[in-house]
Amino acid sequence: MNKSIIVGTVCLFLIIAFSSSNGIVYHGEPESAITRSNEHQMSLADSYTPHAPISITSNADFVSQGWPGNGISGDPYVIEGLNITADAVCISIRDTTVYFEVRDCVISSVDASLYNGIVLDNVTQGTVRNCIIDLHISGIFLLDTSNCTLTNNTASNNDYNGFYLYDSDNCTLTNNSAYSNQDGFYLYDSDNCILTHDTASSNRNSGFYLYFSDRGTLVNNTASSNEDSGFYLHYSYNCTLTTNTATSNSDSGFYLRHSYNCTLTTNTATSNSDSGFYLTYSDSCTLTTNTATSNSWSGFSLSSFNNGTLTHNTASLNSERGFYLDESNNSTFTNNTATNNLDYGFYLSSSNNSTLTHNTATSNSHDGFLINYSNNSTLTHNTATSNSFKGFWLSNSDRGTFTNNTATNNLDYGFYLSSSNNSTFTHNTATSNLGYGFCLSSSKYNTLYLNRLGNNSISNALDIGESNVWDDGISSGNYWLDYNGTGVYPIPGSAGSVDNYPFAVDITAPTVDSPSDVEYVKGESGNSITWNASDDHPERYTIYLDDTPVSSGAWNSSSESITISVDGLSLGTHNYTLVVTDVGGNFVTDTVLVTVLEATTTTTTTTTTTTTTTTPETGDTMLILILSGAGIAVVAIVIIVFLKKRGV
């Protein structure tokens, strides 16, 4: 037997041995060889097939033109892997109801086309995925279409819009990109659409523009460097915008006009050339935990914005105001923060019946809070600290109510009233301001008592108004750090006002015990918490459940216990926090944890032993193949050596 026969025999033997591995898919196999669940092949990005424009005008055209698939949810008709470059509508699908998918296509034109790139007209259940469209009027145009999906597409350098939906409802756009178009995403009269993780940048108008499009949901989208607003909603009601980002746009980051009942949550507007958030003629909108930073105008600018609610928003480092409310009535601001803005922290102009609670204005370049030509305002538990001018300025505004506000370390007055009448100030604190603690100028019929004033540089108070009252007329005046404890306290100024019932400043906080934490099984009753608090001048208490007030009232005596039932809570751990405050504004808190457990049940478990046969994993199979190959090679070598010894 010659050597060639020996080698051939060994090779044949090896081929036969390894032929058993032909059912294994290796990790390094090209993506184009892996079939999708609908059994159509995925085209490689660099293997587009040139194709003429496509026109489909009925369900039957998918079959007659030979497009694969069955038109059902799990097996749509598929148009994929094509390069259509034409001054025409490159893919037009109209008047269909079957499921179809256009994917992995390039749509372009040699020069700027006068037609749209991909058009879906009066269709349902269509999907466009992983397509690139440029140099057309609009990249993808949906007309009278519903329940369609656009995913991972890129539209750029189109003359009009990157993505244009006209009268197309219930559509979903995800992970699409639009740049260098007129508008990135334009929805006209298209309701109930969802846009998530889409990006619009460097477009000539807005990044996202919704016009007469109600109940839209925009989540995690980004608009940057567009020549108009990042997000623009016009006559679009009941929309929800969550966790979107608008950066470096040439107008406002978020602009809502004539758009009612919209909700904006956890959005960010940074370095835009106008306001971060600008809402006008948009009533009953809610803004929560949004952030506006380093914008060229105001952080939040609200005009003709009635019945609006702002909660836990932050405005910082903006070139004008942190929060600006103009000609807007019945608005509520709670737990918002304005810091390091180059003008006012909070500025209300010609806005009546506003309520501001637990807001903070710090280190702004003008006043912390300016209430200007705004009547019937209520400010409670707000703080103005280290602002370059006044802490609180009430200008030409009547019938305001100021309670438990604090102005400290401001570079001008703590509280300043100019031409403002019939307002009430109680339990406020003005300390360590560089001007006056309270200054009343050309203001009359205001009432001030139980306020704390001390360490203000010029004087704790100045009254150059008329007929202002500095006590309650019964037994309580204000707390003065410089009161010597004897007689009345004369208020400096031409008004000749007197505090008839002054107090020395009470700087002693109440005390309260710390009841044990509570634990009970869901459904049990009779569970409660009882606190015992003490102070020489008690006033009131508030109990919070998980940061929400659930009980409050007068605290009249240290002998009064404060009790609350904790029955009926949901499973889990809850926080009950008591805050007790004395007439001097001093307070103390205590928190009790209440844990509600699930009732335990007794169950009987039957254990069944099952014998199973385990098929080796892919790694085990590969190891077996390697060992088998090595064994076969050894056998082949032995055969060769044996034959050589025999002289074959």
Briefly summarize what is shown.
The protein is mainly beta and 648 residues long. Helix content is 8%, strand content 40%.
Topology, element by element:
Elements: H1 3-18, E1 49-50, E2 54-56, H2 59-64, E3 77-80, E4 82-85, E5 91-96, E6 100-103, E7 106-108, E8 118-123, E9 126-129, E10 132-134, E11 140-143, E12 149-151, E13 154-156, E14 161-166, E15 172-174, E16 177-179, E17 183-188, E18 194-196, E19 199-201, E20 208-211, E21 217-219, E22 222-224, E23 231-234, E24 240-242, E25 245-247, E26 254-257, E27 263-265, E28 268-270, E29 277-280, E30 286-288, E31 291-293, E32 300-303, E33 309-311, E34 314-316, E35 323-326, E36 332-334, E37 337-339, E38 346-349, E39 355-357, E40 360-362, E41 369-372, E42 378-380, E43 383-385, E44 392-395, E45 401-403, E46 406-408, E47 415-418, E48 424-426, E49 429-431, E50 436-444, E51 447-449, E52 452-454, E53 459-466, E54 479-480, E55 489-490, E56 498-499, E57 503-504, E58 511-512, E59 518-521, E60 528-534, E61 538-545, E62 548-554, E63 561-565, E64 572-582, E65 587-597, H3 618-645
Parallel strand pairs: 1-4, 2-5, 3-6, 4-7, 5-8, 6-9, 7-10, 8-11, 9-12, 10-13, 11-14, 12-15, 13-16, 14-17, 15-18, 16-19, 17-20, 18-21, 19-22, 20-23, 21-24, 22-25, 23-26, 24-27, 25-28, 26-29, 27-30, 28-31, 29-32, 30-33, 31-34, 32-35, 33-36, 34-37, 35-38, 36-39, 37-40, 38-41, 39-42, 40-43, ...
Antiparallel strand pairs: 55-56, 58-60, 60-63, 61-62, 61-64, 64-65
Helix pairs in contact: 1-3
